[in-house]
Every structure is written in C-alpha cells, then in structure tokens.
C-alpha cells in the first residue's frame, strides 16, 4: 500500500492511473475506522481496479462549538486496517495541503437541507461538499462509496454529483451494525456504559416504524408518534429529531406512497448518535 | 468533426479519450466566434491530442437586465469556423441539458471580485464558475484555454481551479485585436460607425499607461489619471471603470512593484467594451 500525503502527488498518480484505463474506487473517511468504513473499502475492492481511501478530518464541516479538536484520531491503527483491506493508496493530507489559503471560491447546498442533521449543524454540508469536490478532483474516482448511516450526506452528495456533472457513480453502502443493532460510528466510544446498553433501541424504534409502513400505515404522523413513544420509553438520551421524509429528496410527505426515510438523532452526554432506515412501501 | 449535444454522450466520450491516454484541450465559448476564439482553438490544437470546443450561452452569468436574449447567435456560421480549425468535438448543449433542474448546489466567488466587471455585474462570476465547473466535468480537459481580454474571468478561473483542485492547466491566450487595436469581441457588432472609429482609443489609452510604467512611474494614481484624461479627450462613450490593480490577485496597489493590470470598460449606446493590458515593471 502506498501512502500519499501531498495533493499534487495524489492527483498526478490518479490521473496517470485513469490514463492507463484503470477504474478507481474511492472511500473518503475521517479516520478512526470501524466496520462501516471497512464495508466501503471492501465494496470498492470488488468493483474497481484501484482502491483509494482517504483519511482527513475536515475542519470546514465542523461547527464552531463542535468536536473538531476532540474528534478521535489514531493514524497508526487506521493504517493497519486499510492495509489489511488491500487498499492500493491511502491518501493522508494534512490541513495545510488541503487548505493552503482561505478559500476564494465557496460552495453551498440549497436543497435537501433544513431538515435532519442540517437543522442543528448549519454549514455542515457546505463543508462536506467543498471537501468532497476537492477530494474527487484529487483522486479521480470512477465510483465513490458512502455509508447510508449518514443518509442525508448521501442525498446531498447525490445532488452535488448530479448538479455539477461529476463523472462519478455514487455507491450507497448499507449501514454496518453491532450485534445488538447499534449503527457503527467513530463517536460510539464516547457513550457511557448505560448509554451504550440502551442505544440499541434507536434501531429497534426505526424497525418498528418500518413494520408499520409494511403493515399498510400511510400516515407519517401516526408512524412518527409511535416511534417517538417507543424511544421515550426506552432511552434516556434527548431526541434531537425524529423525521419521516421522502428519500433522497428529503421533502415532507403527507401520504407514504414513495420511498421514505425514517431518521433519528439522539444526544447523549458526550456523543450524538444518528441512525435511519429507508423504506419502500 | 463530431457534434455532441447530450451531456451524457459528451462525458462518456471525454472519459473514454482520457482512459486511452489522450490529452484534451478545451476552449469554452458562448459562440458568435471571432479571431479571439479561433486563437484559443489554434493553441489548443498545437498542445493536445484532442480539441473540444463548446458553444453555450450560459443564462446563469447574465444579470436580469443584461443581454441574454439578444446575445448574438449564429450556429451554422460557428460550426464552419470550428470545423476549419480542426476541432475534434464541438459540444453544443441546450439549456435543458445543462440545467435540467434548478441547482441544489451553488457556487460563489469571494476573492478577486468587487472590482472591475464585478462592480456592475453582480453574480456574473458566480454564473461563470458554475458553468465552467459543469463543462470541465463534462469535457475532462488536460488544459483549458481562456482569452486575456476577459482578464478578471481568467483570474477567477485560476482561483476556481486552484481552490477546488481541478486537474486542469489554465492557459491564458493573448487578446486578438483588429488592425487598429480594438480587442475582438462578439459585442463589437453593436457599435455605431462613429463608436467603432473612436473605439481604437481604448487600447491606445492602455498602451499609454503601460509606457508610463516602463518609463518608471510607480504611482498608480498618476497613471490612472493620465489614461483617464486621454480617454475623455478621445472617446464619447461613458467610462464605466478604469482601474490599476495587482494581477491576478486584483488588489489595489500603492506602489507599482509587481505585475499589474490596467483595465477599462466603456459603455456605448448598444455595447459595453472592455479591454486591458498586463504590465510587469
């Protein structure tokens, strides 16, 4: 496995590989890798000649009061994981490589926001699409892999690629879960023992909602209320949001007759957990 | 010469060419081609395996009161010109191909603006960088060619490519002029006979300014005043701006000790002319 830290070297290498007719699969991450990230690399490995993974904790997507400084990092451990997954190139730029100057060109998202995580993290997706635009230009992927745990991120990336005509196929990879159902996340390490025990109920609540839709319930308000009641009975964390929206357009629905997402965010003492389930009625 | 109108076909073709190791030179235009555009195609022809030219009058870069509807168009004539210049692919998308939906992702420029053409065309460069991002993704150029007549555009495109890490070399092509010095422009057809005669003084005024710098004048105010006086004595059009700034950063200078641009815009009855000269002291 080759480790590249320079943006110029990364781009030269990627351009060379594409000019040789190779396909490139790209898995962008912020590191502190878990099975969710590994799933991205494994699917990329199956579908492409070359796999590039990146680790970059992007300051642009953290709010002023968010956890950029304390976001968990462990490069040595991450390198071993990536190497084991037969990734060809690990791109590890530092901040001065990615943002040598303040940005003179800015990007923003005006659709698929104002709901879910965007409510409490204004500017977050602006930072996400900016860094992804840069990473896409640097790694030249044929296909890029994103986990469905961050379902709003996937919806926004889908919009980015469509609206700006990136020549990239976006691959949505199912959420990887702990045996009890908790979605894997780098932030799970911040849960207390009690919080970790009860956090399995997030996914169970979402599955309850899904079952209601399968059973024929078409009223989103009824479903949201039932799921919320279940959550309140089973968890102590504060429900940040619980929403049922069309997917991937993320618009409110009056009647469930298209693909929808039920998404939840719960704030615990030191960690904010998100999870979701996508249902086609 | 191949004519392509579909964005998908254009992108598939460009990706295929790059995967075969070919270099692509790209000349984006809004059509109604003149010698300035031809210079872009000729330089691209010399430096690349494949030359792609595009003709697309981009509504996003026209202000509400600007000349989008009456911007001159002549596809049949343009096609002949492009063919003669041995362009391999002419990309001719219509608006519904380029903007099938309203944009959910937006772009903006925050540096190198607030001066020159941006003063009177708010939002213009926002439209320019958005369409260029799309065109770059569709045509996959190794090198893209821009005329220095639109010097602020070149400076902004340089920023776009640098800040977002586009894998593209931006080539600045010198302004092509009429025998009397008037910079070639699609908008010159709107000059009256009298305006056309006196318009040669724009370039003469700029050359006067350049000569002052070469002669050792380091005070930008003195130079701007002399050039302005010359213009007022020789033209009837309204001076929209006359500015001396650093280039390509477009910042005010107190003392001329780096590369600068002297740029002018003149409003005539039916046409707004711009011109500039870049000087290294």
Automatic annotation (TrEMBL), chains A, B:
GO cellular component: cytosol
Pathway(s) annotated for this protein in UniProt: Cofactor biosynthesis; (R)-pantothenate biosynthesis; (R)-pantothenate from (R)-pantoate and beta-alanine: step 1/1
Pfam families in the cross-refs: Pantoate_ligase (PF02569)
Catalytic activity: (R)-pantoate + beta-alanine + ATP = (R)-pantothenate + AMP + diphosphate + H(+)
E.C. number: 6.3.2.1
Residues in the signal sequence: none
Protein's UniProt keywords contain Ligase: yes
Key words, A-Z: ATP-binding, Cytoplasm, Ligase, Nucleotide-binding, Pantothenate biosynthesis
Origin: domain of life: Bacteria
Residues binding beta-alanine, per UniProt: 61
UniProt entry tagged with the keyword RNA-binding: no
Binding site for (R)-pantoate: 61, 153
Annotated residues for binding of ATP: 30-37, 147-150, 176, 184-187
Annotated GO biological process: pantothenate biosynthetic process
Active-site residue list: 37 (proton donor)
Single GO MF annotation: ATP binding
UniProt cross-references to SUPFAM superfamilies, sorted A to Z: Nucleotidylyl transferase
Matching NCBIfam families: cyt_tran_rel (TIGR00125), panC (TIGR00018)
Family to which the UniProt record says this protein belongs: Belongs to the pantothenate synthetase family.
Function: Catalyzes the condensation of pantoate with beta-alanine in an ATP-dependent reaction via a pantoyl-adenylate intermediate.
Assembly, per entry: Homodimer.
Misc remark: The reaction proceeds by a bi uni uni bi ping pong mechanism.
Protein name (record): Pantothenate synthetase
Native species: Natronobacillus azotifigens
């Amino acid at each position: 496995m080759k480790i590249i830290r320079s943006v110029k070297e990364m781009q030269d290498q990627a351009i060379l590989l594409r000019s040789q007719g190779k396909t490139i699969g790209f898995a962008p991450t912020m590191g502190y890798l878990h099975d969710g990230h590994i799933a991205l690399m494994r699917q990329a490995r199956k579908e492409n000649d070359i796999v590039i993974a990146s680790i970059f904790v992007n300051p642009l997507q953290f709010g002023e009061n968010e956890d950029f400084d304390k976001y968990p990092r462990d490069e040595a451990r991450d390198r071993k994981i990536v190497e084991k997954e037969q990734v060809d190139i690990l791109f590890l730029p530092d901040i001065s490589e990615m943002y040598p100057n303040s940005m003179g060109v800015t990007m923003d998202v005006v659709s698929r926001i104002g709901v879910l995580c965007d409510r409490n993290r204004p500017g977050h997706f602006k930072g996400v699409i900016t860094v992804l635009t840069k990473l896409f230009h640097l790694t030249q992927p044929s296909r890029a892999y994103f986990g469905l745990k961050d379902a709003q991120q996937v919806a926004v990336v889908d919009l980015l690629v469509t609206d700006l005509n990136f020549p990239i196929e976006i691959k949505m990879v199912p959420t990887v879960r702990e045996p009890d159902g908790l979605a894997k996340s780098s932030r799970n390490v911040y849960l207390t023992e009690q919080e970790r025990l009860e956090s399995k109920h997030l996914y169970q609540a979402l599955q309850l909602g899904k079952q209601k839709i399968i059973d024929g319930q078409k009223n989103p308000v009824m479903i949201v209320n039932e799921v919320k009641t279940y959550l309140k009975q089973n968890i102590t964390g504060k429900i940040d949001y619980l929403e049922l929206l069309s997917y991937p357009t993320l618009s409110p629905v009056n009647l469930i007759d298209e693909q929808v997402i039920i998404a939840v965010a719960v704030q615990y003492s030191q960690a904010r957990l998100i999870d979701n389930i996508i249902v086609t009625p």
